[in-house]
UniProtKB/TrEMBL annotation:
<dbReference type="InterPro" id="IPR039420">
    <property type="entry name" value="WalR-like"/>
</dbReference>
<dbReference type="InterPro" id="IPR016032">
    <property type="entry name" value="Sig_transdc_resp-reg_C-effctor"/>
</dbReference>
<feature type="domain" description="HTH luxR-type">
    <location>
        <begin position="142"/>
        <end position="207"/>
    </location>
</feature>
<protein>
    <submittedName>
        <fullName>DNA-binding response regulator</fullName>
    </submittedName>
</protein>
<keyword id="KW-0804">Transcription</keyword>
<dbReference type="InterPro" id="IPR011006">
    <property type="entry name" value="CheY-like_superfamily"/>
</dbReference>
<dbReference type="GO" id="GO:0003677">
    <property type="term" value="F:DNA binding"/>
</dbReference>
<dbReference type="Pfam" id="PF00072">
    <property type="entry name" value="Response_reg"/>
</dbReference>
<dbReference type="GO" id="GO:0000160">
    <property type="term" value="P:phosphorelay signal transduction system"/>
</dbReference>
<dbReference type="InterPro" id="IPR000792">
    <property type="entry name" value="Tscrpt_reg_LuxR_C"/>
</dbReference>
<dbReference type="InterPro" id="IPR001789">
    <property type="entry name" value="Sig_transdc_resp-reg_receiver"/>
</dbReference>
<dbReference type="GO" id="GO:0006355">
    <property type="term" value="P:regulation of DNA-templated transcription"/>
</dbReference>
<feature type="domain" description="Response regulatory">
    <location>
        <begin position="7"/>
        <end position="124"/>
    </location>
</feature>
<keyword id="KW-0805">Transcription regulation</keyword>
<dbReference type="InterPro" id="IPR058245">
    <property type="entry name" value="NreC/VraR/RcsB-like_REC"/>
</dbReference>
<keyword id="KW-0597">Phosphoprotein</keyword>
<keyword id="KW-0238">DNA-binding</keyword>
Amino acid sequence: MTERPVRILVCDDHTVVRAGLLALLRSAPDIEVVGEAGSGEEALALARKTAPDVVLMDLQLGAGIDGVETTRRLRAMSTAPHVLVLTTYDTDADVTRAVAAGATGYLLKAERAEDLFTAIHAAARGRPALSPPVADRVMSRLRNPRPTLTPRERDILAQLAQGLPNHAIARALFISEATVKTHLRRIYDKLGVDTRAGAVAVAKEQRLLS
């Protein structure tokens, strides 16, 4: 008796990309597409109706909740599907946030079809699946853990989380704006990000903000 096909829901806000994925997935006899969504909200609604085994999730979904928040809400469901991220973004911040939200795997859209199919079946069994570049980054971080933030860097990060611009942070902490910029560069490097929003997101995920 053969195993039943893996039931999969695709969430991607780009119609053309989604159409290509659906055509590819439907060519696999052991995968059954049960729905497609163009937003996080739509994915959540469809997941409740169709109970997929795996949700193939993009991270950037335009307006509304993003892929990370959608993943978190999917994993909180009573019949939680596994989530396999499929994206073009592979920064440390993106990988960290997705895994912290409950993603079972993290693939890049440049992967071969065979590797995508293999990852889907692994995810359906709850086994992790990472693209080689993502796995390399994860292993690199494990081998070379980044230094912890200094008290001053934590102060600046806390101000950053409040949405304050550099000049306001400088005024609040009684330091120069140039000093703020220097600390920000160090914070970005330690957290593996390159934007203010990325720094705040990683800080929240890693509970660096008191």
